[in-house]
């Protein structure tokens, strides 16, 4: 994932605290081996972005930081492919998801590939229909449904190689 996600995840987990830092059961930090400068710079960056705050001789995760962790955790949600590789490609999926939601955009592309969709352009895909209901409900729950449009084709799309 990344250092910022790991730090926020540890602070959000409610582990033990020693001298202002959250530690595991044995009192050891759970971070990978990072230099002091890397950790210090990352903590300062997260404070500037409003993900962390210093207070009472310790570092606390903010509401914005908890939302960041939740969004990252949710981005790992996976759905199974129920489509046969030879199923007719009769649904066009188009999306316009802002650059600020890059993780969600990449997650969507990854799932479309998994559902045996073919890319016509970076944000235009064609594949079998219908998309799984649970998938569409999840897309709505993470707030990208408004940027997603589907069009049913009268005839299956023939992909030219």
Automatic annotation (TrEMBL):
Protein name listed in UniProt: Transcriptional repressor PaaX-like central Cas2-like domain-containing protein
Residue span(s) of domain Transcriptional repressor PaaX-like central Cas2-like: 92-152
InterPro entries with a match to the protein in the record: PaaX-like_central
